[in-house]
Amino acid sequence: MNLNQNLQTITSRSVWNTIAAFLLFFFFALNANAQMLEPVKWTSKIEKKGNNAVLIFDGTIEKDWHMYSQFTPDGGPLALEITFKNQKGNYELIGKAKEGKTRTAFNDVFGVDETFFEGKAHIEQEIKIINPNVKTVDVDFDFQVCKEVCINSSKKFSITVPSTFKIDEVPVVTEAKADETKVTGIAVDTIKKEEAEQPKAEKTVDTAKEEIPAPAPARSLWSIFFIAFLSGFAALLTPCVFPMIPMTVSFFTKQSKSRAKGIRNAIIYGLSIIAIYVILGLIVTKIFGADALNALSTDVWFNLIFFVILIIFATSFLGAFEIMLPNSWANKADQQADRGGIIGILFMALALAIVSFSCTGPIVGTLLVEAASNGGIAPVVGMLGFSSALALPFMLFAMFPGWLNSLPKSGGWLNTVKVVLGFLELALAFKFLSNADLVLQLHFLEREVFIAIWIAIFGALTLYLFGKITLPHDSPTHHISVGRLYLGLLTFVFTMYLIPGLWGAPLKLISAFPPPPQYSESPFGVGGSGHGAVSTEAGKGLPEGAELGPHGIMVFHDYEDGLAYAKQINKPIMLDFTGYACVNCRKMENNVWSEPAILPILKNDVVLISLYVDDKRELPKEEQFVTEAGDKIITVGDKWTDFMISKYKTNTQPLYVITDLEGKNMNTSKPTISYVSADEYLHWLKEGIGNFK
Hints:
Helix 14 (412-440) runs antiparallel to helix 15 (447-465) and helix 15 packs antiparallel against helix 16 (482-498). The protein is 46% helix and 17% strand. The strands form 4 sheets. Strands 3, 4, 6, 7, 9, 10 and 12 form a 7-stranded antiparallel beta sheet that branches. The protein has a 6-stranded mixed beta sheet with strand order 13-14-16-15-19-20, sandwiched between helices. A 5-stranded antiparallel beta sheet has the order 5-8-2-1-11, with helices on one face.
């Protein structure tokens, strides 16, 4: 009753309806705009550096988001691309753009080590001005930002070069004046909201001079340390090192005047071993540089060279020849060791490193290569882990000499350890060859071939451990030890585990090593068996424009083709806005679409149209156009991005929409859905399909 009385005070009911409709429209407009995400805010400036200039770009990244570095390797998420639009005749680039601190972590979806910024992105590019009349430096950034969804953004910078920018002047700092943002690929980077915040951002640029902090790759470094520590322990059990433990400990205990002094000398000896290998890691980092190491890890020649090196190391471990440093080095180290004192102990440690090189060299080389792919101080951390495991027994046995009696005697088992390491080196070598093949897209070493090679290697290792194969330095044996039997059984089980990978099994235990499933002769398994049977319609012959997608689901990649087929069979459409480099898109496909309750629905109850917003293929000239906002639609990805933003007012991926044959949304509670759990996705699917029926 009160409501009716209040309404009566309004002179015109039509006026009230008009206001209500306006408010409702305003609410939905706000809601639509809220979906346009802009996780990175950029500022830029130019500074004088001697005769040159330095362009500085700083990005502030929202919490929980991360932006991929220009050093993220091919085959993974989209790396940052920097394009200098007006470089020719105006300025020269001095080296490659340098980045602030980044984090590197393994991506189990793409099978690569991805490098990314968190919190802050800092990029510098040194240039040399060659045209005194140049007024601006125009730079384009194309980058990907991800959280639960991914966004591809582009940022245009137009940085003013002062007319008085000369060598003999006081260093000048000037701000970018004509920065503008454009939707490219999947996203809008910065819109009018940034312009409102510009005064605050400019103040920050003037005052902020310190290096941008970023989280250190703690997990990655701990992982490197742990693997290196295990490798050092393995090296300890080789015939070059193990026999030296009792010899060295006995030397310290006999030559020392007291037990305490013997313990002290042994500790100094162990620390000297650690120092030698850590210095080696520092030298490698210093020579190549942290960024260069990371960039080299994706270089074709780098991977090919280390493939050859690891093959040589493996061949040496298997007994074909010995890799040794010059004898003169060991002799000189021994002579210096006779001097006594701390200097003498240091040279004793150096002599150990030289004499044992034939066993430790291949392991150290492999560790340095693996650590190099992480960049930063990873080589130092790797050498710290390796040398700690190598030095620890010498110190412990010096403290407790009685433990020496519990050590197993030297014998043929030491060579067995060396041979096992040789097989492991051989298997790892093909990882580097695979990296080169992936970058060049030669398809010589596809997933099935790689797995077949590993089956052969670990199958041969199994036969060796069971005594069916003998190698040059093996001692004659009439039986195998229990430990060797267990290790043989383990490698046999692992070999059997690899075999289904030839028919499309995911092999999650080794996902970091073989090429990804799509880089294979049969991306869906032999006969489609790797991802389940094909749908009913697909089994009768694929319609025009369709192909088999993830898990054997029939999929269209053109909207018009998919719409025509949906009308023909009268089924709802599921639009899948995705990207080739979208991590969470792959996770949804692998973990949610594969669910037994969901997969049959996607195969039989909807027409799937997957539109790749990062598809760089150029549209035919007659299909290219300019949007009302002035954006040029040139590529296939641009077309689907414009469709997604104009129709659904969002710029994120993955994005899923169920529509009828007229393009109307079928879900009322959530018209669109993104990266969600399997249960939520299933409920959303059933609601949309139910409303269509």
